[in-house]
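Consider the tokenized backbone below.
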């Protein structure tokens, strides 16, 4: 303190009023230096306090943020998979729409084949009827019919002993 007081005041002019002011001046100087020291301490430690607060915030919020990121990653994969499914479904529907022409061709071919099958069935039925009529006419002229009617023939004798295979 003497250095400050000697520096600020002329030490050669010490009188009784200076002695009274010296304790008061000491208090003022002490308060100023304490405030200055406290300010320097706050300024020096303020960045570390701020860093401590940031670190504390990160330590508290980081696990939640990491969990949210993992959840978002899973959701992103799900959405991506659903997007592929939708695009595949769209392409399948478009392919079905494009298959309209081949299906109409198939339909016309089926109609044509049904018509031809009906024609074949009618022809085979007509042939069956015709063959039945021919058999009836051949049975009426057969040797067994002639035997029953009483008209013998020489062919009947040779055919009657051996059965006829048809």
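A designed sequence for it:
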């Amino acid at each position: 303190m003497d250095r400050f007081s000697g520096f600020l005041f002329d030490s050669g002019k010490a009188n009784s009023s200076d002695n009274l002011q010296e304790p008061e001046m000491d208090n003022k100087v002490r308060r100023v230096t304490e405030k200055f020291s406290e300010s320097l301490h706050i300024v020096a430690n303020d960045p570390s306090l701020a860093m401590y607060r940031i670190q504390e915030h990160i330590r508290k919020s980081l696990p939640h943020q990491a969990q949210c990121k993992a959840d978002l990653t899973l959701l992103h994969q799900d959405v991506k998979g659903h997007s592929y499914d939708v695009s595949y479904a769209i392409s399948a529907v478009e392919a079905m729409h494009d298959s309209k022409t081949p299906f109409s061709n198939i339909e016309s071919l089926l109609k044509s084949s049904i018509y031809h099958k009906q024609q074949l069935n009618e022809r085979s039925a007509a042939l069956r009827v015709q063959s039945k009529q021919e058999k009836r006419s051949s049975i009426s002229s057969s040797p067994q019919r002639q035997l029953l009617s009483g008209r013998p023939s020489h062919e009947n004798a040779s055919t009657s002993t051996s059965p006829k295979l048809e």
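The chain has a mean pLDDT of 79.
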